[in-house]
Automatic annotation (TrEMBL):
One of its GO terms (molecular function) is N-formylglutamate deformylase activity. The keyword Hydrolase applies. It comes from Shinella kummerowiae. This is N-formylglutamate deformylase. It is an enzyme of class 3 (hydrolase). Its EC number is 3.5.1.68.
Amino acid sequence: MALFELHQGTSPVILAFPHTGTDVPADIWERLNDNGRILADTDWHIERLYDGLLPNVTTVRATFHRYVIDANRDPAGVSLYPGQNTTGLVPETDFDGKPIWKDGAAPTEADIAYRLANFHAPYHAALAAEIERVKAIHGVAILYDCHSIRSLIPFLFEGRLPDFNVGTDMGRTCDKAIETATFEACAAAEGNTSILNGRFKGGWTTRHYGKPETGVHAIQMELAQVSHLATEVPPFALDEEKAARLRIPLKDILNRLEALASTLPR
């Protein structure tokens, strides 16, 4: 199986999709229980939401599912949110805290090491190469990490999640102008709610690559799935009308970021 899909563009903006993949190798699929095989924690249809919004944008999309290994987790297994419920590098449960593996079939340390080398590392090697290529063209690169999640998950957070969840690790991963432009576009989206550095402050991808002092800026967008899905339960179908409305502010965000690139410090 191809581990990732890559489209090279000439824009200073790069879109990363670590969680839209649904491919699971047969030997791993056999170890998932019925709950795990729902693949409920997929970032459903996010690549479709962003498709065509910004001409010449570079995209890097993992095709493997996060239950194989989570491409947005620290390879050392360090928690993104110490003290809070979350899922790990190779999840043992879904976002509701329910087991996803058959009894006795949970991944071993050897399994995790194999998946790090053969799934996680190749995806990030491709993403890192694109960041360097784009930076060589423009002097800067803006990595926009694309995500979505169900709007109601008591195991992970209280209440209903806002539609737009912007994460910059409290301003550490990008220039202030990028954070401001993104959040202003979210706030201007009529009928949608938004928050900056709330429950989701940026995952490992954003925190690992976002080093503004080197000319690499990173920001995470976590979309509540109620903003674009018909339902947040199987079959997780895209609501075309909702999606069309959501694409308007998303396009505004990407256009703002691309325009900002030429103004950023080199």
